[in-house]
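Co-fold these.
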Amino acid sequence: MKKVAQWSTEEVSQWLTEEGMPEYSESFQHLNGQDLLKLTKADFQSPPLSLVTSDGGRQLLDKIETLRIEHHIEAHKNGHANGHAIVAADGDGGGKAKRNGVLNGFRKDAVQIPIPEPERSPYPVEWGKTAIAFLYAVCCFVFTTVMISVVHERVPSMETDPPLPDKFFDIFDRVEWAFSICEINGMLLVALWLLQWTLLKYKSIVGRRFFFIVGTLYLYRCITMYITTLPVPGRHFKCAPKLFGDWEAQMRRVLKMIAGGGLSITGSHHMCGDYLYSGHTVMLTLTYLFIKEYSPKRFWCYHWFCWILSAVGIVCILLAHDHYTVDVVVAYYITTRLFWWYHTMANQQALKETSQSNFFSRVWWYRFFQYFEQNVQGIVPRNYELPFSWRPPRWSQTKYTRIDT
Amino acid sequence: MATTHLCGEGDSADVLNMCVVEDNCKLPNGLEHTILTAVEEDRKVKRTKRGGLSLGLRKGNQKHRDYIKIPVPDSKNNRLPLEWWKTGIAFVYATFNLILTTVMITVVHERVPDKESSPPLPDKFFDYIDRVPWAFSVAEINGMVLVGLWFVQWLFLRYKAIAGRRFFFLMGTLYLYRCVTMYITTLPVPGMHMTCAPKVYGDSQAKVHRILQLISGGGLSMTSSNLMCGDFLYSGHTVMLTLTYLFIKEYSPRSLWWYHLICWLLSAVGVVCILVAHEHYSVDVVVAYFITSRLFWWYHTMANVQELRSSPHNYLMNTWWNPMFSFFEKNVQTQVPCTFSWPISWPPSCFKNSCKRYTMVQSP
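Predicted complex below.
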């Protein structure tokens, strides 16, 4: 398009109509491009223009200015750095282009356009926070083990305190090998979850959540185990003898238990007293919840399989008379509620801020939650990738010299 | 002359302008426009890209018969409907659960192991603090005071129906959970001081008699109605103390901090006194507090945060009582404001001066 300065009167008239300002076309019949550019605000204050204009010519002047800038950019495309920025003016209306001074000659000062920095990922990796969560979980595990060892000293002996009456035990007799099934299921679920976790794209975020929730659940468990000691649920229990203050032996027991992961199968769990609530149930339930949450919805076969593993494991705990029914029920309740609570808070932006209607912010771990999840925006998508990037060795590929050098 | 804007024509078609045109304004060619909505504009923008005055002519020539109805949100729509019948249902639910709890206590009582054969379990709190006999009365008095305060406060609430419904539902659910935990495993008595009524072993009439006695006494020891043992996990007294405090705090003005503090003290002292009286194990009280507070916060967050209801990733809906929650809170669309009103409103007809009659207005 020709420069404005070279427009004829017809072109001016056409432009006026196109821009939706036909009221000026009559008055501007004799104006060409040059005159158009020379228009100022003062011209609109006096007749005849003051009669046709409704806004003091402001809109028209804005459009003229836009035209001028457009053409200026066109003409100076390769020369100017950054072109001209449309700066919002103070006062009259937004978006008014800054005048550059001389009408027909353009000043060559560069205006910097702030380019927005590349968007931060809504799911930042932040392995540091995951490490902290891991440490927290490890601390809670160690603390639990120490607590079991302490509680063991206080468990009433089987003679003085018989097992408490339990409805499930009344109905079902003890099955000897059931507890092994439970532990095998547990190990299987943990392994499946670990495998799934390594395939996730946002490992750090999900891992952080898992460690935090597991740590908190074991911390609660410490408390309930400690304050009231339940007697052994069955006469079949072989509790290790009490040590009565022998710290060294106790430390050794603690280490043995940690090394064995707290499982009876590995022969590390000979201590009694850790009944309310059941740690096995916690692991079975939690791994199932995480597996289901972070795997595609269409893998319903897989979800069902894990659910069966989990449910069978829990029933086996009871069949083996290794925990009271109330231990299992309370463990299930606390695990599911904490999981759902945490994830709802993490997925709703509205719940990440403290407010009157956000009762979730009253839990004691709210600050920790905010620390872990404040940079995660939105729901973590279920994306998968191989844990390490797999590139075929270079020699098998053809080399494109111009690209690959 | 009024200003006219030909929306969307020319090269500014990418900017959708709300095309509001004053009535009776005339375009240069004498065309009239009616008020267009943005939706129509959207359709027309696509056609105006060929732009120019000619299209304006075409636009003007069409009679705008396809009006689009803009739904104006009904300001009179009640966002907090009272629905007393739902409160009635919640009340029935709570009563049912209370009766179920009572029946369960009677059943469990038969299974409580003997004090001699099953001594009290080791409890950390009991190790440190010895029993104080009158402490349990303090706990019960506190409980009664808190329930009384909450009742009075409830009477003065404007949205009684909604708050009452929530209270009954939560209480009912907590007692239901309590039935379950009480029944499945029976804990022995926490202290040798407890006198348990003798077991009746299948005498149904005596059992029913006991149930009625317990209900009429409200389950309190002070009224000598609760001589039955076995209802230890978890503590019903803690539930009431905690729940009434939470409700009192939630449904009263924030500025009454001294009132909240008093209620908090009543509640805390009551809970500690339960333990000092060696009437419940520590784990009973801790679990009761945990379940009560979590359930309260869970329910109220679901009810107050409106975004959760339409969000697909709302795990809070995975609970078993979610259908009941939806039923109760479906029509409550906003947080219940803390407004108070007199419990009884005088009907206006009592005060209408019957002397004045405005014949044109009041004539049938």
